[in-house]
Write a structure and sequence with these properties.
By secondary structure, the protein is of the alpha/beta class. It contains 14 helices and eight strands. The protein folds into two domains: about 120 residues; about 200 residues, Alpha-Beta Barrel (TIM Barrel). Helix 6 links the parallel strand 1 and strand 2. The protein is elongated and about 85 Å long.
Length: about 350
Amino acid sequence: MPPTPSSAEVERLLDANLDRAREGLRVLEDWARFALDRADLVARCKDMRQRLGRLHADRYKLARHTASDPAAGMGHPAQLERQEPSQVVGANASRVAEALRVLEEFGRGDSAALAAEAAAIRYQLYDLEVDLLQAVRLAGSAGDGRRAQLAQCHLYLITAPMVGLEAMAEAALAGGVRLLQYRAKGDACASDGLPIDDATRLQQARALRQLCSRHGALFIVNDRIDLALATEADGVHLGQGDLPPALARRLLGPARLIGRSTHRLEQLQQAVADGCDYVGVGPVHATPTKPGREPVGLDYVRQAAAASPIPFFAIGGIEAANLEAVRGAGASRVAVVRAITASADPAAAARGLLQALGSDQ
């Protein structure tokens, strides 16, 4: 007959499963908070976690002895296979449910209140898991919609600090631009020569976000993930010296777009491996927007056309006069700045570029 577990052994078991359940709920809670932006799901996760926390008695914690635990640090190869948010959510929901079942079974002889609470939370968890998975799927659907729209865009307008920024953007959008990036780097100055502060950046980005929403256009923020989140942008564009795309994805979630500037084929291939949604290819020509940057010419455009599995936008000094040569190198999409922002008629400039690209957006 097997020996009956001692009180200390049961307390260690209950402590381990309380930890396991609370940790798993924290994973679900933080995903609902930071990735899904669902306060209702956050509140449900937090409620379950706090209820278990109130019953996590000191005597359970004092019974811990990690050094003698034969399973401490033990992992499983399946843990490395969790790449998608739905897999992480499902795995942690299962982890919580399993821990709750253990608490329910072994808690009966130690704490009736803990056993009853674990049983109640376990049934609530089943509904929570479904709601979380549905929210993840909806977030993915939003991303699919953005990516489908991105695939239709052939003209990408990148703004620069200027007088009449909003008026220019509205005219360009009226002319057919459906992909617009707000760009005001850290050293950017306004027309009066004074540096642009973050309050101004936020104000400008919000205004452009509203214009893009009104015209059904995608709105991207250059570099600044915080501004992208604050303005509910459709995505962010990163330079080679900006935050890594993997970190940006963790902060932005799966539904938003991530673009990457590339200057040679190896960088494009890395951007694809990093899960970027599109890349900029250039600068094709020398441009005052990127002073000191050596142009890559049309050779890199040809390489990108042959190798890129994701949308790429040729960029750098592209205008109506040299667009045909860029198209001849294999680019069907271009990103421009001065070709529209410096035009006396941004709407007409946008329409002319779109016509030359054979596209309506």
